[in-house]
Amino acid sequence: MIVLLSLLACTHTPPAATEADDNLAAAAFLTAHEAALAPTERAMNIAYWEATTLGSEEAYQRAAALELDLRRLYSDPATYQQLVGWQRAGLADPLAARQVELLRLDFEENQGDPALLTRMVELSSKIDRSYNVFRGLVGGAEVNTNAISEVLASSDDSAVRQAHWEASKQVGPVVAEDLRELVRVRNTLAQRLGYPDYYHMRLLQGEQDPAQLQAVLAELDTLSAAPWAQVKGALDDELSVRFGLSAEQLRPWHYADPFFQEAPVTAALDLDGYLADQDILDLSTRYFSAAGLDVSEVLARSDLYPRDGKQPSAFCLDVDRAGDIRVLANIENNEYWMATMLHELGHAMYDRYADPALPYLLRDPAHPFTTEAVAMIFGRQTKQPGWIAQWTGHAPSPEEAALIRDTAQLQQLVFVRWALVMADFERGMYADPEQDLQALWWDRVEHYQGLTRPAGREGQADWATKIHLISAPVYYHNYVLGEMMASQMQAAIARDVYGDTDLVEVDLAKPAVGEWFKTRIFTQGTRQPWSALVEQATGEPLTARYFVEEFLSEG
C-alpha cells in the first residue's frame, strides 16, 4: 500500500506588533531597501564567483567582507520591529505583504550579536576556501575530484580504490575543528534568538516545520528500507564477485563514489558510452532550446572545465536577479557531467524566466527545494531510454532499456538513503556539536546505507568532508523534497500537457512543457509560500505519492 505524505507550511510566529499598519511607509521602505540591497548582493555574488573560480585568498576575503555588508542591511533592530508590526497588522498590497514577511525572516537571523555574525562569516569563508583549494594525495601526487571519481567508478583494484577514497577524506582533518567551531557559533546565534539550535532556526525561517519534516524523512526511511535491502544485497553480491571478497569484507571504497550517493556502473550497462561522442554543451543547448528555454547566455557567462584552484563541484549562481546567471562546472564527457549540466541548467532556467515585473525581493524561487525539483527533473533525463535514443543517437536495445530503468530506480534508492544520512547527521550535529561526530557519522552511514565502517578511522574527520555542511547548512533535506516534487511535476505534466497519466517517460523537450514550467513555476517567483506554489502548479499539496510509485513500489 502506498503511503501518501504531505508537508504543511509553517511560519514562525512573531512577537506582538506595537505599531499600526502604514502602507505608504512600508512601500517607501521596500523601495529604499531594494536600492541598497541589489548592488550589494550583486557585488557579493561576483566576489564569490571569483573566489570559487580562481581560489584566491583575496577573492574569498572580499566575498566575506561583502557578505558582512549585506548582513548589516538586515541588522537594524528598529527596522526589524517595524517589519514585525507591519506583518502583524497586515498590508493592503499582497506583494508588499509578502516582501515584508520574507524580510522579517531575513532580519531575524541578523538580530544577533554583530561579533557572532562576523565570526560566523569569517569561519565559513575560511573553511570554504580550504575545501575548494584542497587536493588529496595518492602516493605523494595530488588527485582532483574527477580523478577520484574515475577510479571509484572503474577500477577493479581494491588497494587503488582505497587509496583514492582515503584521499577524498584527507580534507576532513584540515577543516574539522573550524567546522565544529562554526556549528557552535551558529548555535549560539540561534539560541540567543530563542531557538533550540541553528537547525531549528533554519527550518522555521524557511517556512518548514521541523516535526513534520522529521515525520516525512522517517516515513521515507520506512518506505525505502525493504527495496533498499533488496537492491543493496544484489549489489553486494555483484561487488563480491568483482573484487573477490565476501559481502562482509566490502568497504566504502568498493562503491561508486566517495559518499555512495551515486548508482554504481555495472558491466552490463555503460551509460558513459552513450555520451562518449557527444558535445555536452551543444547537446544541453539543443535540448533546452527544444523546450523553448534559452541557455545560451547562461553558458556564455559560465566557467565549465576543471583547473587548479577552482571549486571541484558544480553550482548555478544568479548574480543579480536581472539575467546575469552563471554555472560553475568541471565537465568531462560522461553521463555524470551530462546529468549535472542538465541539473544546473534547470536551476538556471528557473532564474532566467523569473517575472521581471515582480519586485526584486520576489524574483527568486519559492523555496530552495522547488528549484532543486526543477533541476532534478531535468537531471534525471540521462537515465531514461527515450532521452538517450533521441538525444545521443544511440538507441538502447530492449534489454539495455530495462537495465537503464533499473539503474534509474537504483539511483533514487541510493540517493534517498544517502540523503537520510546527511539530514539525520546534521540534525544530530547541531543538537550536540561536542559529541563524537565521527562516531555519529558512521552510525548514520551504517544505519541508512548499510556500509561497514573501515577500521582505524576513529581519529579521522570523515564527517567534515561534505562541503554542504559548510556552504549550505541545513539544506540536504531539500534534495529529498525536491525529488518528491520532481515526480509530482512529472505526473502533472503528463496530465496537463500530454493528457496521459499513464506515461512512464515524459518528454520534456517540447515547447508546451517549457510553457508549463514558465507559467506554473518560473514566473511565480516567491510571491507566495512554497506550499501554495506546489498546490497551484500541480493541483495538490506536496506529496511523496508519485515518488513512491515511480521508484519505491514493487512492480
How would you describe this protein?
This protein has helices at 23-54, 57-72, 77-89, 94-109, 114-133, 145-154, 158-169, 171-192, 198-205, 210-243, 271-275, 280-290, 296-301, 335-352, 368-379, 385-392, 398-431, 437-449, 468-471, 477-496, 511-520, 530-538, 545-552; strands at 136-138, 141-143, 315-318, 325-328. With 555 residues, it is mostly helical. The strands form two sheets. The protein has a two-stranded antiparallel ribbon. It has a two-stranded antiparallel ribbon with strand order 3-4. Strand 3 and strand 4 form a beta hairpin. It starts with 22 loop residues before the first helix and ends with a helix.
The main sheet orders its strands as 1-2
Q: Structural class per helix/strand content?
A: mainly alpha
Distance separating the two termini: 12 Å
Oligomeric state of shown chains: single chain
CATH class bucket of the largest domain: Mainly Alpha
Radius of gyration: 23 Å
Shape: globular
Number of separate domains: 2
Helix content: 55-70%
Biggest sheet features:
2 strands, antiparallel
How many strand units?
4
Order of helices and strands: HHHHHEEHHHHHHHHEEHHHHHHHHHH
- Looking at the overall shape, the CATH architecture of the largest domain is Orthogonal Bundle
Indicate the CATH topology of the largest domain: Neurolysin, domain 3
* Helix run count: 23
